[in-house]
Amino acid sequence: MHIPVMLNEVIKSIKIIPNGTYIDATFGCGGHSRCILSKLNEKGKLIVIDRDPKSIEFACSIKDRRLIPIHGNFSKILKYSIKYKIFGKVQGILFDLGLSFSQIKDSNRGFSFMHDGPLDMRMNNLHGISAKEWINNANIKDISFVIKEFGEEKFYKKISNVICKYRKIKNINTTKELVNLINKACGYFYKKKHPARRSFQAIRIYINNELQELKLALNDIIKIISPKGRIVFISFHSLEDRIIKKFIINNSRKKIYPYKLPILESKIKNDNIYKLKYFKKIQPSKKEILYNKKSRSAILRFAEKLKYD
Ligand SMILES: C[S@@+](CC[C@H](N)C(=O)[O-])C[C@H]1O[C@@H](n2cnc3c(N)ncnc32)[C@H](O)[C@@H]1O
Fold this sequence. Notes:
seven-stranded mixed beta sheet; alpha/beta; DNA polymerase, domain 1; 14 helices; about 300 residues; single chain; Rossmann fold
C-alpha cells in the first residue's frame, strides 16, 4: 500500500484554503491528493498531473467534480494553468518527486533492483526510449557519465566497463541481468546498501529526463501561484534537493541594482514581483521513518509567494 510521505507536514505547509485552487503535480497513487480534497469545500479545485498513464487512469476513476486529472509532464504546468484558466490563481502546488509505490512494486515497469522484470524504467511507458534500448546502444562514455552524474556512483567506470563488455555477447534485457552485472563490477565494495541502488537511480533519472523536467517547471511556477500561495517540494536525493534549494534561495532575494544606476521605480517593482518567502526544510520524524522506511531520505522544502508593494 502506498503511504504518502510527510502527509501532515505537506498539508500544514501548503496551507489549504477550503475554496482554493491547488495543483498536485505528481499525483502518483493519490495519497496527498485525497487529503487535500478532504480539506476543500465544494468551491475548491484540485488539478492533478502525472506522466504515468496508469496513475492518471486511477485519478480519472475518482468521481469528484472538484478533481481535474491531466496526463502529462509537469514541465508543461504553465500551459495547463492557462488551459484551465487558473494562471496566477493557484493557492498551492505540490511536487512529491520520484516514484510511486505502484511503480516500484510492479516488476513489469523495471524500476526495482529487487524484482526481476523487463528493463524499462519509463514513467510514461507509452513514449520515449526504454532503459533496455538505451543501455544496449549508448556508448561507454555516455553510460559512464550518466552513472557518475545522476547516481553519484564512485564505481561508475567499473560498472560501465562490465556493461559494455557483456553486451558485446548478449543484450541486457532484464533488471536482474543488470543487477548481476553491477554486482560483478562493485558488489564486493558495498556492505550495507544495495550495489545497484545508485546506478538504477541514475538510469531512471536519465531515461525520464527528471532533472530537466524539474528545472523547466521551476521556471514557471511562481507565475502560476497567487500572492501568499505556497509551493511544496518533497525530494529524495541530493541532486533534486540542490536544484530546489537554489531555486528558492535565488528567488528569495530582492534584485540588487548597481549603485546610482538610473532605474524606473516601475521596473524595480516589476523585477521584484515574483519573490518567495523561504521556510526551514522539514525531514520525516523518527516515528514516520519507523512505519514507512521509504520516507527516510525525504526532504520537504516550501516557500510562499510575496508581492512587492
Ligand atoms: C512519489 S510519486 C507521488 C506520490 C503521491 N504524492 C501519492 O501520495 O500517492 C511521484 C509521481 O510523480 C510522477 N512524476 C514524476 N515526474 C513527473 C513529471 N515530470 N511530470 C509528471 N509526473 C511526474 C511519477 O509518475 C509518480 O507517479
